[in-house]
Amino acid sequence: xxxxxxxxxxxxxxxxYDLVHEEAEHAVQANQFLVVDGDxxxxxDPGGNMTYNGLLMGxxxxxxxxxxxxxxxxxxxxxxxxxxxxxxxxxxxxxLISKLWTRFLPHFTSGRDYSARTIGIPDEGMLIPLxxxxxxxxxxxxxxxxxxxxxxxPVSRILFSGDLGASLVxxxxxxxxxxxxxxxxxxxxxxxxxxxxxNKICRLWAKMARSLDIEMIVPxxxxxxxxxxxxxxxIDWVEQLECGVDLMTEKNYRAP
Length: 256
Ligand code: FE
Prior knowledge:
Elements: E1 2-7, E2 11-16, H1 19-23, E3 32-37, E4 40-44, H2 52-60, E5 68-72, H3 78-81, H4 84-90, E6 94-98, E7 118-121, E8 126-130, E9 133-139, E10 149-153, E11 158-162, H5 181-195, H6 199-210, E12 216-219, E13 225-226, H7 228-240
Parallel strand pairs: 4-5, 5-6, 6-7, 11-12
Antiparallel strand pairs: 1-2, 2-3, 3-4, 8-9, 9-10, 10-11, 12-13
Bound molecules: fe (iii) ion.
C-alpha cells in the first residue's frame, strides 16, 4: 500500500514502503517514490526488479504509464535503479543521474543505446521541470556515492534524501514516521558511520539543507522525519557526525 506523503488534489507525493517485502524478505528494506504534478510524473529511486510491478500498479491510478516523464536516481546502486531496463522498455521516460554515472547505466539495460533519454546531472545540480513545478536536484556528493543527488520538491517541501537518513529496519516497520529521535539513532548510526564519507561533507550538506524550507526528510531506507523539529534534529545530528574516512585507521587496512 502506498503512503500519501502529500496530496493537494493536483500535486501528489507517494511513498512505497513494502514492495520489496512482498517479493523478497531477505533483501534490504527499501522505499520508492512517485511525485505527480497534474498529469506529469517522476519516479524517484524506483529500485530493483522486485519493485517494478508494484510501482507500475501504483502509478496507474494517477496517470497513463506513457506519461511518466522521469526516473530520478540519487546514485547508481542496485536498490536504486537496477530496474532501469524495464522502465526504459515500457515508458518513454528520461532517466536523470549524476553525470559521473551516465555511462555506467547501460550495464543495467540490455545494451540498447538510451543516451538520447539519459540526462547527466551536472555536479552543481539542476532544476527539473515537472508539470507546473520544478524539482531541485541538490548536490549531495559522497553521501554516500561520489556523484550523488537528493531531490527536493518545493510544493510539498519534501526532501527525498537517498541514503542519507537511512535506517535499517525490518520489513513492515518503515512506513511510520520517526516518533522518538533518540530511540531512532541506533538504527541509523552504524550505517552512516560506515557508508557516509566524512564530517566535512556532512557539514557542507547541513549548511545547504538549512537554506531550504523542509517539512519532511524521506530517506530511501527506513522511516521518514516529519515536521520542522524532527527535520532540525536530523540536520543537527548529521552536522556533528564523524564517519567514513574520519574513523579509518591503520587497523582497517591490514591485509587479512
Ligand atoms: Fe546506496
